[in-house]
Design goal:
Rossmann fold; 5-stranded parallel beta sheet; globular
């Protein structure tokens, strides 16, 4: 199976996970890696943006409240960069206020998930459909 660019089989899907809480990041990372995804981690918005351009991931999971550059700014910059414009982005946040959800989706996120309602298994199971829909 290829990704949207026809470059990788499904066992080579690269996921960029932008999350500043190491405990949360590790919890999701472990499940994604167990399910065969290659996970690249970024601890702040600037690192996430840099890695997105360098690695060209198949999917980005993006927190909103991040050091150095918040997730909404990262998302805006991903959408204006030619290298990352079409990479599907799923926001994964502690904050579920409707105005934040609306803002994320308007900026081009494929989905907006609340961490307390999203298990690592659910996240991992949804990767293929996000890649299809992205």
């Amino acid at each position: 199976m290829t990704n949207g660019r026809g470059e990788h089989s499904s066992d080579e899907i690269r996921v960029l996970f932008v999350e500043d809480d190491p405990t949360v990041a590790q919890m999701y990372r472990l499940k994604l890696e167990l399910d065969g995804y290659r996970v690249i981690m970024a601890r702040d918005g600037e690192e996430g943006l840099r890695l997105a351009a360098e690695v060209r991931p198949d999917l980005v999971f993006l927190d909103i409240r991040l050091p150095k550059m918040d997730g909404f700014v990262v998302l805006e910059k991903l959408r204006t960069c030619e290298l990352t414009r079409h990479v599907p982005v799923v926001i994964l946040s502690n904050y579920g206020e409707q105005d934040l959800v609306d803002r994320g989706l308007k900026l081009g996120a494929l989905d907006y998930l609340i961490k307390s309602q999203t298990t690592p298994a659910h996240l991992s199971r949804s990767v293929e459909s996000w890649l299809r829909d992205g």
